[in-house]
Amino acid sequence: MTTSFETEQGAGVTAPAPAPGLAARTRGLRKVYRSAVAVDQVDLDVPEGAVLGMLGPNGSGKTTTIRMLLGLVRPTEGEVELLGRRMPEGARHALPDVGALVEGPGFHPFLSGRENLRRLAAAEPRLPSSDIPRAVEDALERVGLGAAAHRRYKAYSLGMKQRLGLAGALLVPRRMVVLDEPTNGLDPAGTREIRRIIGELHADGVTVLVSSHLLAEVEATCTHVAVLHAGTVVAQGELDELLESGSPGLLVSTPDGDKALETLRDNRIPGKLTPDGVRADLTTATAPQVVETLVRGGVAIHEVKRERTGLEDLFARLTQHETEHEGLPEVEEVRA
């Protein structure tokens, strides 16, 4: 669903003071559909200029959270701020600066991609009529649909429909872009194009919120991450910090694996053999101390690198308690 909103002054709408450095935030967010709890006590921070990946399996509450953030759904409980405006009351003021693609695009099936995009552009409050043709063509080219713009929407593949929805979100410059599963239905080339567009937006200082259940996509494109599970945020923060929040280790590439392991143990540094050498545990020693110990012990060192937890391992660690029916772990927050 691609939406645009007018910017007329809304009666009685007051803007709270924006949280410093945040493009969006939620506090105590909860949404209940009859007896089903879709989102439960979500506290989410989206830093300005970040590419935040909202990560979680299908049914974890990602789309519902996004819909409440954009004012498309009213929360059962909690508070939402978007670009410094309380939502949904401040939607008319905040949403013209937000491009969004939520739950797939919705266009007229018998119109061409170009004609659909022109209709959408006509509803953009900040796009003069004289600028619509150029804005439409630029958006089509940006998402790789220039050659297929004349074709009817009903003849588009799922990936092409996703691209057209993204083009609608990029018709005018935005302060924030929200993309719900943007690589859904795309082939590898299309996925690379989405990565490129997200990278360009980030370089321009645009805040990007991307929801996905694909761990590799989040790790490849995002600077920050929020992990949702069963409607609750179980971790959020800078991606690099989260990936290094597990048990720290140093991977040492050496042909003298047995000698390196013996040297580490003689100096009371835990370690274990790996296919390329050893892994030294950094809970009792620093990386320079490990290297110094090995060099002093006569171990040949080819390469040294800090071990990072993969996003798949991180996700499994954060959600394993719920899988085992032991309840959710406490929210981990990593701040710069």
TrEMBL record:
Alphabetized GO MF terms: ATP binding; ATP hydrolysis activity
Name of the protein this chain belongs to: ABC transporter ATP-binding protein
UniProt region (Disordered), positions on chain: 1-20
Family: Belongs to the ABC transporter superfamily.
PROSITE patterns from the UniProt entry: ABC_TRANSPORTER_1, ABC_TRANSPORTER_2
Native organism taxonomy: Bacteria, Bacillati, Actinomycetota, Actinomycetes, Pseudonocardiales
Keyword Flavoprotein: no
Keyword entries, A-Z: ATP-binding, Nucleotide-binding, Transport
Biased composition (Low complexity): 10-20
The ABC transporter domain, residue ranges: 24-255
Pfam families in alphabetical order: ABC_tran
